[in-house]
Amino acid sequence: MSTHNITVTVNGQAHSADVESRLLLVHFIRENLRLTGTHIGCDTTHCGACTVLVDDHAVKSCTMFAVQADGHSIRTVEGLEQGGALHPIQAGFKEEHGLQCGYCTPGMMMTATALLEHNDNPTEGEIRQAISGNLCRCTGYVNIVKAIQHAAKEMRGAAAVPSQAAATAEATITA
Amino acid sequence: MIPSTFDYVAPSSLDDAVTLLREHGGEAKVLSGGQSLIPMLKLRLAAPTVLVDINRIPGLDYVEERDGALRIGALARESALERSAVVRDRYPLLYDTARVIADPIVRNSATICGNVAHGDPGNDHPATMMALDASFVLRGATGTRTVAARDFFVGLFTTVLEPDEIVTEIVVPIATARTGGAYFKLERKVGDFATAAVAAQVTVDASGSVQRAGIALTNVGPTPIRAEAAEAFLLNKPLDRGTIEQAAALAASSADPVADRRGSEAYKRDLIRVLATRALALAGRRARGEIGNRES
Q1: How high is the pLDDT of residue A158?
Q2: What CATH number does the domain containing A30 carry?
Q3: What's the confidence (pLDDT) of residue B294?
Q4: d(CA A88, nearest CA chain B) in Å
């Protein structure tokens, strides 16, 4: 069994740790860093509850070893909020009632974030295709799709004019 | 679920990787996308003592036409096939296949070479590579050899790959004129293995007569199965409805399914007939240029 010293940037902050080779990335995030927003669902690469962004790509963190993340940049659900303002995807889930029990929500939002950063005007079909690796056992997909559409609209608007969220963030920082 | 303990090494060159594999004999496994291997480690269906992570080796993540072939490097991800304009426009069978493998998140990590090296008859690329008449470049500690996809799979999770060899490249014959392909898969839900699937690739002449046919079947036997009788039957015939139906029946007779939760033997065999009919019809329309490769 080997141990490795790794440095991983999580939500913009560098973390160094000695990890066992078999430590899964999701356990590193939840137990070493105490970022428990990333959930463990099926633990078999099906449900997507543990989805995080690794170098801007959605990855199921139960199916990657922490040592593989050495030198890479990771975003989790805790990194969405900026300066006290909700990320458009969080605002979308709030406004459109995109969550019921909330278990799938962190993974769902990270997958949606990766989609919208790549394509800020997806069709409903493209949204449903993108989240097909994230399971919602409440079966709340209709509102999840609406939430992502809501976020897409706000992100498109933000590209043109400062969004409400950004304006709020600015006010908070100024205050 | 926690895997058994193992040593982890991440070499920076293929030479170092195959040397490590040779040093550890059959005890080491190659880690590329990890989307099949890591679940198996967690379920303790596999317990190698060493993982050789090839993800830190530069220059292996290509999907490109070069030297008369489409070449897919060891670290090219499934999602790269979906994003590649060349694949989308010229290799519709590959594009169709990539779109139905696992789910979009898994496809960001999973590699095409890993999909074939794993030797799982439920994987989708093996049949597709057989239908395309692709070959695999195998790099070992003592040299490099090239093996046709049709000779690569020898049994359940068993290939001709030696313990010290890595599939470093997939070589797909370059797309020629009047060639079309299609992949049809029935899955119970996104992310499931195929109940059954059919890969078809056909080349026709100016009159629409078949000059080459590649047909292979997914998850209806211990290995992907080449439907040789159907391939031979199609030669020098037009891909009309009657011909397609006869070829599809021959393809079904090549299937060797077993009953499981996904269906009975008879159901799966008939499913092959239906999927082969659809795959050949679409491959034919694409080959004749009646529809574009991006349409279906």
Answers
A1: 80
A2: 3.10.20.30
A3: 86
A4: 21
Length of chain B: 296
| Cβ–Cβ below 8 Å for B35 and A63 | yes
For residues A40 and A109, membership in a common domain is answered with no
B109 touches chain A (CB under 8 A): yes
Evaluate if residue A175 carries a pLDDT over 60. no
Q: Which residue of A lies nearest to B5 if distances are taken between CA atoms? A: A1
Domain end (from A50, A79, A108): A79
Best residue of B105, B109, B190, B192 to probe chain A, by most A CBs closer than 10 Å: B105
CATH number of the domain at A115, please.
Answer: 1.10.150.120
Reported residue count of chain A is 175
**Cβ contacts of B4 on chain A, cutoff 8 Å:** 22
Could you say which residues of chain B have pLDDT below 70?
none
CA angle B190, B257, B95 (to 5 degrees): 40
Residues of A in contact with B42 (CB under 8 A): 24, 43-44, 62
Q: How far apart are CA B62 and CA B2, in angstroms?
A: 33
H runs (alpha helix) in A28-137: 88-95, 105-118, 124-130
Task: List the 21-60 stretch of B: residues with Cβ below 8 A of A.
Answer: 31, 34-35, 38-39, 41-43, 51, 53, 55
**A161 — pLDDT class (breaks 50, 70, 90):** low
Average pLDDT, chain B: 97
Considering its fold, how many domains does chain A have in total?
Answer: 2
Q: Does B11 touch chain A (CB under 8 A)?
A: no
In chain B the beta strands, taken as DSSP E runs, fall at 7-9, 28-31, 50-53, 63-66, 69-73, 135-140, 143-148, 153-155, 158-159, 166-173, 179-186, 196-204, 210-218, 225-226
- The predicted structure's pLDDT at residue A159: 75
B1 vs A49, which has greater pLDDT?
A49
Question: Helix or strand or coil: residue A64?
Answer: coil
pLDDT in tens, B97-113: 999 999 999 999 999 99
Tell me the shortest Cα–Cα distance from A77 to chain B, in angstroms: 16
Q: B263-278 pLDDT, tens per residue?
A: 999 999 999 999 999 9
Which domains are present in chain B? Answer: 1-44+61-175 (3.30.465.10), 186-287 (3.30.390.50)
Give the residue numbers spanning the domain of A144: 88-174
What single DSSP character describes residue B266? H
B106·A68 Cβ contact <8 A: no
Contact A65 B102 (CB under 8 A): no
* A131 plus A154 within the same structural domain: yes
Contact yes or no for A45 and B39 at CB 8 A: yes
* pLDDT > 90: percent of chain B: 96
